[in-house]
Amino acid sequence: MVVFEYLTTENVSSNGETEFEHVMMKMVQMPMEQLLILPTGLPLTITETVGCIAGTNVEEWDDLGVVVIVQDYASRDVLIECSVENGEFATDANAF
């Protein structure tokens, strides 16, 4: 899972850029032994704790998104990439 901010404008530098889109704040790797059986055409609910992201310079908590990447560990093929719909997120950087 990747936690990202859709748009950030306060982290500008001296290169002339004024905003950045889809800035990764934290990547979370699930344990290798955690297997998922993905049923075709049915919704899947995953609950995961990301941990502290206080040092990531998040500007707006309501501007965060999550992308889930499902990979076959044996072949290293990426099977699915999807964004989270109707996700519920904490507003405290220490309890995200």
What does this structure look like?
With 96 residues, the protein is mainly β. The chain is 0% helix and 30% strand. The chain contains no helices and four strands. It has a four-stranded antiparallel beta sheet, with no helix packed on it. Strand 3 (64-71) and strand 4 form a beta hairpin. The radius of gyration is 15 Å and the shape is elongated. It starts with a strand and ends in a 13-residue tail after the last strand. The mean pLDDT is 75.
Query: Could you give the distance between the termini?
Result: 13 Å
Secondary structure tally: strands: 4
SSE order in H/E notation? EEEE
Q: What count of helical segments does DSSP give?
A: 0
Mean pLDDT: 75
Shape: elongated
Using the CA coordinates, give the radius of gyration.
15 Å
Which ranges are low-confidence, i.e. pLDDT below 50, for 5 or more consecutive residues?
none
Provide the structure class.
mainly beta
Major sheet: arrangement of strands: 2-1-3-4
Largest sheet properties: 4 strands, antiparallel
- Fraction of residues in helix: under 10%
Q: Could you tell me the strand content as a percent range?
A: 25-35%
Summarize the structure.
With 96 residues, the protein is mainly β.
